[in-house]
Amino acid sequence: xxxxxxxxxxxxxLIKENKRAINKAIRELDRERMRMERxxxxxxxxxxxxxxxxxxxxxxIQAKELVRTRNYITKFLQMRAHLNAVLLKIQxxxxxxxxxxxLKGTTxxxxxxxxxxxxxxxxxxxxxxxxxxxxxxxxxxxxxETMDEAMEGENDEEEEAAIVSEILDExxxxxxxxxxxxxVANPAGTTANPLAAEEPVAAxxxxxxxxxxASGGEHAHRRHDHR
Length: 227
Fold this sequence. Notes:
mainly alpha, two-stranded antiparallel ribbon, 6 helices, 2% strand, disordered C terminus, 2 strands
């Protein structure tokens, strides 16, 4: 069957032919089984009718025919099950053949690709690509900066701030709430460090105390002279 008229039949075609033959056999079995099931119903009807007419000899003959028909129906069901099993085997072989063909095609494609690929040339191409990409990025960055400088107006920042403020007002956000607290400027003539500011006061206080001590000593000396 694999060699028809001196020509080698491909595996795919052979699988297709076998599958077609099995499907045809299954259809024929189904038709025959359905015919025998109709005969079975007719036999049952005839047996009931003859039994009602008390034709027992004919009833026995029809009963034997009914048993034979039922046995053949069972055999047909078994044969159909076997053919289905063979059909599943053929389908499995077909799947394996398709997988083998796909693997073979993929392997051939990979072999051709590996033969045509020059690894040093590919590395050189990748390096050149990276260099050109870097040049393109630098050029685009320079062009962008130049265009920004050329297109930038004197009042652009003020207009942008006004637009942002207007949008925030529309959505109910106050710009004053978002601004951070500004540092409080020190008054003129004051020192930022509170400790440094306290030192002259302490020194003044000490001088005053010394003056007070000198004054107290003078009063004591006067009292001594008076005595």
